[in-house]
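Incident log, entry 3
Record: TIGR03085 family protein (211 residues)
Problem: checksum mismatch between cached and fresh output.
Input:
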Amino acid sequence: MSTFAKRERLLLADLLETVGPDAETLCEGWRTRDLAAHVIVRERRPDAAGGTLIKQLQPRLEKVMAEYTAKPYDELIQLIRTGPPRFSPFQLKQVDEAANIVEFYVHTEDVRRAQPDWSARELDPVFQDTLWSRLERTARLLGRGVPTGLVLRRPDGQTAVAHRGAPVVTVTGEPSELLLFAFGRQSAARVDLEGDADAIEKVQGTKQLGF
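Fresh output:
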């Protein structure tokens, strides 16, 4: 089994350490300190993390997030590096890979691509295929708010339907770039869009599910 989640975790921790606590990210309203706190709360505080999806838990999530953002930044970086507590399900390699590959990849790019001097990473084909597999399974969920048809297409022609409808917009790019696009990072994703001009404008203006 791959260890992509562990690799992306360490890359994210290193990057957060390098840019410091107040650097820009692609997550609206978040600096790097906020993003670091989010990652930690997600895997260490399930009692609060549900606030991202459940309205009733939002006040608790905000309270716990504030507690973590107030911690020393070095401590946050170390918590990300060391991972979840001993008895967390995220300690299981299968769970870690299933839940965290996309999480850590997207957030690493949230930091990298918000910096003025960023450059594209060279990703190996196995990792691209892994990201594509994740995207295929979640495309309909991520594309549910799109007001047009939306098809995601790899350069080799493989496709995933994110939303059925007309007119259809086809987004072409490597799986890593399509994933960023589908998670609401449209402006930072290196993709090509084909279709009706008005439909493309609607797709580009849609904030998909994302994290």
